[in-house]
Amino acid sequence: MRQPTAQWAQGPLIPVISVLVALLLGALFVLLSGNDPIAAYVALVRGAFGSPYDVTETLVTAIPLTLAGLSVAVAFRTGLFNIGAQGQLLVGALAAGAVGARFGDLPAILLLPMTVAAGVLAGAGYGAIAGWLKATRGVNEVITTIMLNYTVVFVMHWLLQNGPMTARNAFGTPASARIGDGAILPIIIPNELVPLSRLHAGLLLAIVAVVVFWFLLWRTSLGYELRAVGLGPRAAAQAGIDPARRMVLVMAIAGGFAGLAGMIQVSGVFHRVFDGFSAGFGFDAIAVALLGKNSPIGITLAAILFGAFQRGGTIMQSDANISSHLVEIVEAIVLFVIAAETIVRALAKRRGTPAEAL
Amino acid sequence: MTIEMLLGAGVLAAMLRLATPILFAALGGVITERSGVTNIALEGCMLMGAFFAIFAADRTHSLGLAVAAGVLAGVFLAALHALASVTFRADQIVTGMALNILALGLTSYLNFEVYGLTGTPADLPTIPVLPIPGLSGLPLVGDVLGRQSALVWLAIVVTVLLQLYLFRTIPGLRLRAVGEHPRAADTVGINVYATRYLAVLASGGLAALGGVYLSMAVAGSFTDNMTGGRGFIGLAAMIFGRWTPIGALVASLIFGYGDALSVTLQGTSIGDVRIPVQLLSTIPYVLTIFAVAGFVGRSRMPAADGQPYESEGH
Amino acid sequence: MKRVLALALISTFVIAACGGGASASPSPAASSAAATTTAPAAPAVKVGLVTDVGGLNDKSFNSLANQGRLDAEKDFKVTTSVTESKKQEDYVPNLTNYAQQSYDLVIGVGFLMTNSVWKVAKQFPNVKFAIIDGAPANDKGDTENLPNVANLFFKEQEAGYLVGVIAATMANDKVGKATHNTLCAMGGIPIPPVDRYIAGYQDAIKTIDPSATILNGYSNDFVDQAKGKEVGLNHISKNCDILFQVAGGSGLGYIKAATEKGVYAIGVDADQADVAPGTVITSALKRVNKAVYDTVKAVQGKAFKAGDNFFSAANDGVGYGKLDPVVPANAKAAADKALADIKSGKITPKDQLQVK
Question: Which of A39, A142, A192, C256 maximizes the CB count within 10 A of its CB?
Answer without folding.
Answer: C256
